[in-house]
Amino acid sequence: MNTVLRNRGRKGFTLVELAVVIIIIGVLASFAVPRFLDSVERSKAGEAFNYLAAIRSAQERYQIRQGTYCDDITKLDIQMPNPKYFSVGTPAAGSTSSLEDSWTLTLTRAGAAGGYGAYTVTFTDQGYDPDNSTIDTKINPMQQ
Length: 144
Known about the structure:
Radius of gyration: 26 Å
Distance between the termini: 68 Å
Strand content: 5-15%
């Protein structure tokens, strides 16, 4: 009868066991959460790269037709909504200081950026411009 009463009162976890489980969950979360947030921000940055790649293609078509690059995105032959997470700058002359043969366009991250701040992504007539972009390499979809 003594063993029945002893086993009957021991139906659960001790405080030490619960504390150990909570510590293990906390340690696992401390590694997983930052990686998850980085991957979310990387996918948002991908929006800028897709948008700028479409602009680049449209700029090339415009340059072939008009003999110069476009200074206003609305004149390009694409129907693409503005990026949700970025503000779009204005196309400007690129490395040659003339829109006839070069251009540059910068998108700036708007709103909360997962701790990365208002980083920028810049494209030119040559493609992605890492020298003038301020995006962190951890969230840059163009990095290997």
